[in-house]
Amino acid sequence: MADKEKARRFDDIITKAPEPKPGPLALTGLFSVSLGCVVGSGLVTLIGPAMAYTGYSVWLAYFVAILMGIVMTFPIVVTSSCVRVSGAFYSLASDILGPRFGGVIVYATFFTPVLYSGFCQALGMYINQIFPQFTAQQYTIVCIVVLLIINLFGLKLFDRISKAMATLLLITMSLYIIWGLLHIEQPLFDFSGENMFAGGGMGFVQAVLLLVTSCQAYYTTIYYGKDAKHATRDIPKAMLLTIPCIMVVYCGLAMVSSGVLPFEEVAGAPTILPAAQHLLPNALYILFFIGGPLMAIVTTINPMFNNLRYGFEQATIDGWFPKALMRHNRHGMPWIIYLVYAAILLIPNLLGLDIVMITNIYQFLSYFTYMTVIYCAFRIPTRYPEAFRRNLFHLNKPAMYVICALSAIAYTIVFIKAAVKISPVCLLIAVVFIVVVILASNYLIKNKKLHIVTSVWPSPDPAQETAEKNAASR
Q: Taking a C-beta distance cutoff of 8 angstroms, is the pair 120, 301 a contact?
């Protein structure tokens, strides 16, 4: 009854888009997207700071962080097996919870580049290590401009460059990890050792909470529902296939980065280069730098423009932002939106915020987005009961509610940690931003400034699909 009343209250501003035909991406393509989104900057920017918290047990902290990431994202994985989504989390929230939640999502997502700005900072820092002629900040600015230009030239160029970089990254990292594991010199498995849990139990927890943000980005595969051939079947499978891959790569690199040099030489190091310099001769070191850390960061930053574009474009069409932002260049790319993203990427770097602080700010701001998405997942069994009964994992309602509750608890723990760690000034700015988001959403809804088109479609009934195929074949 409550859902029907809500629908009547907003039926003048919400319509559902017709479902498009299946897209071109099969399971292998979606797996590439999933893996490319998650394997990236966290590998090469957070191991040193996490080791400062917990010592040689950083590899174990990464393993626990991956498990915690599974708990946090699993409601999204289940949701992706129930509904096909276009327009990202904005469309999902608008469809299931209503326009107020959609507004909070779209405004909060608008500042997602805050996290990526830390990765841009790491990119500049890495290049500065090899070519110290310019400052890390100057390299950061140049890199942001170059990535912006690449994305303005359209999806074909983006696709070619992304595939090439992802392939080079995986080959380089795999070879480096295998070689590095053969040269471990430190007691990584001596659980009673002096530097195994350098910061005690609390240090280990802090390391896990720092690393967990780099273990979740495979959830963004749900954004590609419109482009998937069998969205509700293949997208959740692609996410699940990604998990064992990141377990091997993340834990392996953490072992190598922390295990080939004495503790004091790598704990707190802003890059993983000390270990690589120790292991590799100069020529191989340069090749590793290009194919490993450089590709890891770039493959994370580069998809940001397109990942965020889906929800932002739909939200602009719906009225949340000025229509002028929707101007496209001759390659079909929303160049004004991309310029705004580039500016947001630059701001934290120009302010001199370090990577750990940027990560904490993002964890604080993104909490409200993630909690809204988890609430969407919580409502899936009642909003789309038939589709939920066909979910890939055969979950019943109580099981779905339990995993949503566990996910919410995990996100809340990360949020509390972030709130404690960020500076008072940044905390105040974040709180003001959240209040402004809520007020702006309510104003636009109250004054009928919106016409929202949602793009969420329940999974098809296999029996109905078979009947339709048989009818078409006749």
A: yes
